[in-house]
Amino acid sequence: MAVFRPPFPLAGRGPAASASFARTGVTASPVAALYGAGMDDAALIARVLDGDAGAFTVIVDRYHGDCSRFALRMLGHRQDAEDAVQDAFLGAYRGLARYRERQTFRAWLYRILINRCRSVARQRRRRASRFVADERALADAPAAARDGDHVLRDSLQTALDALDPRLREAVLLKYGEGLDYRTMSEMTGAGISALKMRVRRACAELRPRLEESR
Amino acid sequence: MNDDRFDRLSEDFRATPSAGPEARARLLERIGRVPPPRRGARFGELRMPAPLAAAAALLLVAAGLLGPRAWRTAWSPPARRSDAVAAASLEAAVVRFELSAPGAARVALVGDFNDWDAAATPMRRVRASDRWTVSLPVATGRHVYAFVVDGTRWVGDPLAPRAPEDGFGSPNSVLVVGGAESTL
Fold first, then answer.
1. What processes does the entry annotate via GO biological process terms (chain B) (predicted)?
2. How high is the pLDDT of residue B179?
């Protein structure tokens, strides 16, 4: 089995630098500097498929933040979101040879992520229905065992959580990711008209909740 | 909700806390345990089990013996079908929508024909009644629609078939505008 070798240590300055410096505009991450910030996704993917597995680190740098944000807002739970994002990137990495450039890499990756989020949400619902009857055991459980710290709590999340998952997905792609309906359709597999309806419905439901909280 | 108000939603969304460098490191660690992807087989490199390859070769030979005429017969599309579809797609019918909504202050029609915009097609109250109505031209084909009562409550049309998709607890309705008749 070949070993994936990122061109810098996995922990420490590299990852932190790419996340924080991107906001301040001081510099790009060491990896991006190594490969050239201008290298597009297709070129990076070609390098990965040619055996340069480290080039995938640049892809991770490029999309990890956005994907994490989307998953966190979709699922409202940090650990679930991280699991979904990890699975999505792993799925993309394993299936990279199947990627075709008629779709942008971002759309392809998001399609995988959206499906992962849907699966995680389904598993969570099953989990919840299995344990809902055992409230006493839950109350007796030690505080450290509860996952309250992983739950995202703000007014936006409260409003989003109340939406049907398909409405939440549509409104996050439209207003969170700023996508057009055609791209959203590619990502979700839903028709453009259905997506427009979902966004409108989500807006109608979100409006009173958000105004109430401000 | 107009787009201006949703500028704030976009801002709030972008202010969502980042996953952090540890999450990224954990991801890269997992990726590191996976064999690197390889290019898929190109056309010339496709491998097929021997019996399947033999069957494919036989099919190709048979196709050659039958000749191009047989292929043409088998694959020709029905004559002028596309012309008929194109003509039908240009047609539209004026459809009158009605809803009885006691106590409503305003009612709007939304559907795939107006991009589900609750501001696009307000309905008019029929004088001294609970009935609301609007007429508009709708293109030939199947449409999904609903009513929005007082800006927030989405209701289906009680007198029309319901659409199976995207009900979200208050099913949409289906309208089929056909060449000869319309179903409401």
1. carbohydrate metabolic process
2. 53
